Amino acid sequence: MESKLCCVCGKSYQLLRLLGKGKGGYSWLAEDETGERVVLKQIHHEPCDYYSFGNKLEAERHDYGRLLAAGVRVPRMRAIDPETERIVKDYVEGPTVRELLEAGQSAEEYLPQVREMAAQARAAGLNIDYYPTNFVVQKGLLWYIDYECNAYDERWSFETWGLPYWTK
């Protein structure tokens, strides 16, 4: 991905900056031809010692559907391109919970929202990835910006696994 211009489903996007790298791909802040900002995710196939993958692109599509059905607030998936292994989704502007914590702020006011998301996920038999980089605050609302979810397991629940990262 040397070029600053990427194509997804025949539409061009200008890459503005890297937002982050996860287990499954690189997420870029991008702009479409109209200047609207989106997230463009490029799937990668780098090894991960603690996680095994099947088809990452299909997993993203499937997990997005499961999260929507569960009622978890996630950005809208706009496009998915199997040929280039790229996804375009709405950009949720705001700080991540991790950025708030690093700035010395408390995440206490967002705990009710993340607990509600956790309850919605659990009711659907799911866990989401509660690490603070996966949550953005926009106008007081908490968004889960990742689509990763797995079968519910108490060991990976918010209270057991996620809460310690939110209260540092």
In brief, what are we looking at here?
With 168 residues, the protein is α+β, with helices and mostly antiparallel strands.
3D structure, described in words:
There is one protein chain. The protein has one domain: Orthogonal Bundle (Transferase(Phosphotransferase), domain 1). The chain is 26% helix and 32% strand. It contains four helices and ten strands; from the N terminus they run E-E-E-E-H-E-E-H-H-E-E-E-E-H. It has helices at residues 56-70, 97-102, 111-123, 158-166; strands spanning 5-8, 11-21, 25-31, 37-43, 77-81, 86-90, 126-128, 135-138, 141-144, 149-151. Strands 1-2-3-4-6-5 form a six-stranded antiparallel β-sheet, covered by helices on one side. Strands 7-10 form a two-stranded antiparallel ribbon. Strands 8-9 form a two-stranded antiparallel ribbon. The mean pLDDT is 93.
What's the layout of helices and strands?
Layout: E1 5-8, E2 11-21, E3 25-31, E4 37-43, H1 56-70, E5 77-81, E6 86-90, H2 97-102, H3 111-123, E7 126-128, E8 135-138, E9 141-144, E10 149-151, H4 158-166
Antiparallel strand pairs: 1-2, 2-3, 3-4, 4-6, 5-6, 7-10, 8-9
Tags for this model:
168 residues; alpha+beta; Transferase(Phosphotransferase), domain 1; six-stranded antiparallel β-sheet; 4 helices
Strand order in the largest sheet: 1-2-3-4-6-5
* CATH class descriptor: Mainly Alpha
CATH fold type: Transferase(Phosphotransferase), domain 1
Class by alpha and beta content? alpha+beta
N-to-C CA distance? 36 Å
Q: If helices are DSSP runs of H or I spanning 4 or more residues, what is the number of helices?
A: 4
Under CATH, the homologous superfamily reads Transferase(Phosphotransferase) domain 1
Which ranges are low-confidence, i.e. pLDDT below 50, for 5 or more consecutive residues? none
Per DSSP E runs of 2 or more residues, the count of β-strands stands at: 10
Gyration radius over CA? 16 Å
Main β-sheet description: 6 strands, antiparallel
